[in-house]
Design brief:
Layout: E1 8-12, H1 17-32, E2 36-42, H2 45-50, E3 58-62, H3 75-96, E4 100-103, H4 110-118, E5 123-127, H5 134-139, E6 145-148, E7 163-165, H6 180-187, E8 194-199, H7 206-213, H8 216-221, E9 224-229, H9 235-244, E10 249-252, H10 259-262, E11 267-270, H11 274-283, E12 287-289, H12 299-309, E13 313-315, H13 326-334, H14 337-350, H15 355-365
Parallel strand pairs: 1-2, 1-4, 2-3, 4-5, 5-6, 6-7, 8-9, 8-11, 9-10, 11-12, 12-13
Helix pairs in contact: 1-15, 3-4, 11-14
Length: 367
């Protein structure tokens, strides 16, 4: 295991939980090896929520600088803000005495990577999805080495720079599994019932919330309970359904301790962001994936296809789901024990629990 002691790594990982949580996972491993880390996050509320509980790590907020379309009246203002962010990052890298820069995706990574390259530092990007997004296609120009979560993502980056498959880092807090029965009781759920976990990523998913909330009566009648993470924005809209059907399950707006929800799931229904899929694979949870249809380059559908092809999950297009078919399909699936067992085994085959170590190994190897 390469030694990172006394080495200082800057990780740009703000904007979404899909960038932040893998970044935190790498930071935990880097510090465990004796190095120091500075995590750059955005000013979004979700970043503040997601970073709670990591007081031992150092976070710095950066102004969100989202890139508009090339032909846009917003472009001049963006360029002014971006130049300011670039020079702020150069100053920050100097004061932190950074040895390397890692970008976890999104335009929050662009200025730190450019600043790192301009100072001659080793720079890296990580792409969790099956296909790189617009931001990481740009970020790749400022990276020495490209790290990807899926083998399928190697080819889209083309030739010219090293591309290494490392998996998507998993937070250490998720490594140890909690006892299922005790955790169900902690949530106030019934250990005798099957449990469906519903989550839409760190910010929730409105259509998933609507589908589940409108189906609570059917799930309750079938003896199935729901543990639903709505996201902070949709919590108030979803709450009345649970107040009307109190025995249907539990609704929470956000969860910073995902090990407590993943431990109780017999089946999950969720979006197909790479970070969520990594967690589901580690816990071997059979899943129904409902890709966000407006994701950049439809990358969530491509992510879901990787899991569906091996039988670990079913991918259901959002546009084909409604009140007449969502609950019946979910109930039929969760009652099929033989199929769930096959899906769980297939999920296990996709797990890559040492991804954080692999990322650190690559970075250490180039310092």
């Amino acid at each position: 295991m390469p030694d990172s002691s006394q080495k200082r790594l800057v990780i740009a990982c703000g904007g979404t939980g899909g960038h932040l949580f893998p970044g935190i996972a790498v930071a935990e491993e880097w510090t465990r090896r004796g190095g120091e880390v500075l995590l750059l996050i955005s000013e979004k509320h979700i970043d503040a929520l997601a970073s709670e509980g990591y007081g031992h790590l150092r976070f710095e907020k950066m102004p969100t600088v989202a890139m508009p379309k090339l032909v846009s009246l917003k472009m001049p203002g963006f360029l002014i803000r971006f130049v300011g962010a670039f020079f702020s990052c150069r100053k920050l890298l100097k004061s932190f005495q950074a040895d390397a820069v890692l970008g976890m995706g999104g335009f929050t990574s662009t200025a730190p990577l450019m600043a790192g390259q301009s100072k001659g530092l080793p720079t890296f990007i990580h792409e969790s999805n099956a296909i790189p997004g617009r931001a990481n296609r740009l970020n790749a120009k400022f990276a020495r080495t490209i790290l990807v979560g899926f083998e399928r993502c190697v080819a889209p980056f083309g030739e010219g720079k090293p591309v290494k498959v490392v998996g998507t880092p998993l937070r250490p807090s998720l490594a140890a599994r909690l006892p299922k029965t005790e955790t169900l009781l902690e949530w106030g759920l019934d250990p005798a019932k099957k449990t469906i976990l519903v989550m839409g990523g760190s910010q929730g998913a409105r259509r998933l919330n609507e589908l589940v909330s409108s189906s609570l009566a059917e799930f309750a009648e079938a003896g199935i309970q729901i543990l639903q993470i709505s996201g902070p924005k949709d919590y108030d809209a979803a709450l009345p359904a649970y107040e009307e059907h109190p025995k249907a399950g539990k609704l929470i707006p956000f969860c910073s301790e995902m090990q407590k929800v993943l431990a109780v799931a017999d089946l999950a229904v969720c979006r197909s962001g790479a970070s969520s899929l990594t967690e589901l694979a580690h816990y071997e949870i059979p899943s129904v994936l409902i890709p966000y249809p407006f994701a950049a380059d439809d990358h969530q559908t491509l992510n879901a296809a990787i899991f569906e092809e091996v039988g670990a999950a079913e991918s259901w297009p959002q546009g084909k789901l409604g009140g007449e078919n969502f609950a019946p399909r979910m109930i039929e699936l969760i009652r099929n024990e033989e199929k769930l067992n096959r899906m769980s085994e297939a999920m296990k085959s996709l797990a890559m629990p040492d991804a954080s170590g692999r990322v650190c190994d690559v970075i250490c190897g180039e310092l």
